[in-house]
Amino acid sequence: MSISTLSDITAKTMTSPRLTTRVLFSGPDDGIPVLFVHGNASNATYWEETMLALPDGYRGIAPDQRGYGDADRNAKIDATRGLGDLSDDLAALLDTLGIEKAHVIGHSLGGAVLFRFLIDHSQRALTVTLAAPGSPYGFGGSKGLNGELCNPDGAGSGGGTVNPTFTQLMAAGDRGSDNPQASPRVVMNTFYWKPPFKPAREEELLSGLLSEHVGEHEYPGDFVPSPNWPMVAPGVYGPANALSPIYAGDVSRLNQLSQKPAVLWIRGADDQIVSDTSLFDLGTLGAFGVVPGWPGADVYPSQPMVSQTRTVLEAYQANGGTFEEVVFAECGHTPYLEKPEDFNRLFHAHLDIA
Q: Alpha-carbon distance 183 to 56, whole Å?
């Protein structure tokens, strides 16, 4: 899918030893590198305004991740590695560009990828900025501040929990608003940002959403039946399965890093996607009666996504790292688009500390 870019954004096809994909660039080739990592159901297009707002002397780099946009469709995500494929893709891209270290910034799933990137490649991050990041313990299927599994097989997370109508409409390239629960445009304008906000480049961002690769081995991925509520457990392919807590690994490895770059965490107060009561979490939907058979809050509560992230970052700080949490009022899941002046002021100041 060809998506037009803003003036002064350059799109190139790049091939690393791991992946061929589209990469967007801004700023001078010899500028200080800033690597932008997009979220789920989006692509690098979402970062263009933020890239162009970088201070003089910085170089923005934003790839379409494996499974998204113009990335090679033959390159699948091995979900059993958690987010390891996506993390290693970033490191391989930096190698290909001849970059030893970069500032890194991730949104939503991209923020979760950066937790894994820190574990695997912390020496390559100058600073870390997280915009509404997913929990380090994944999405769905966990409870408590330390990411305890609700069920040993991760039931309630992964590919089987995604609305199939939504993915069918994505695959069809649907740009309408006929389905109030599943039309990609409606989902984007309801949950990506807080209504009545709409971005100036709504059509390009919708194209970015629709560019995600859809299929059994892509998004939403495969799944298996489970004896545990909600009777479906994660499979082994695609980003939704890669976010299952059964594949998250040992998050406490963040505390053992010898190099701990400073972390800036910015989120919206009204985020309905990444929240302690996310409307995309089956624990929340079960409590509302939307998904029948809910076993109760003792067995399957809402995943405390924000509180889990805070707990992990507090431990990171207690072990020698630093982090700052900033919450924007009247803001949803994309603070860098909804509140660009406030976001960039904090982001740019954070870049200066390295």
A: 39
Q: What is the DSSP letter of 326?
A: E
C-alpha distance from residue 279 to each of 140, 221, 284, 303 (Å): 11, 20, 6, 11
CA distances from 69 to 1, 250, 323 (A): 7, 30, 31
pLDDT for res 1: 59
> Is it true that the peptide bond before 261 is cis, omega within 30 degrees of 0?
no
Q: Would you list the domain boundaries of the chain?
A: 10-351
- Fold classification of 10-351 (topology level): Rossmann fold (3.40.50)
User: Across the strands, what pairs with 10?
Assistant: 25
Query: Residue 342 pLDDT more than 90?
Result: yes
| Rounded-to-integer distance, Cα 344 and Cα 348, Å | 6
Q: pLDDT tens across 137-146, in order?
A: 999 999 999 9
Q: What does DSSP assign to residue 334?
A: -
Kindly report, residue by residue over 158-168, the tens digit of the pLDDT.
999 999 999 99
Pairing of strands 58-63, 20-26: antiparallel
Alpha helices in the chain (DSSP H): 48-52, 84-96, 109-121, 164-171, 184-187, 202-210, 238-242, 282-287, 305-318, 335-338, 340-351
pLDDT at 2: 83
Beta bridge partners of 32: 58
Distance in angstroms (rounded) separating the CA atoms of residues 148 and 152: 9
Contact between 112 and 82 under an 8 Å Cβ cutoff? The reply is no
Average pLDDT over residues 270-275: 98
Q: Give 142's contacts (C-beta < 8 A, 6+ positions apart).
A: 135, 148, 149, 150, 157, 245, 303, 308
pTM of the model: 0.98
**3-class secondary structure, 235:** coil
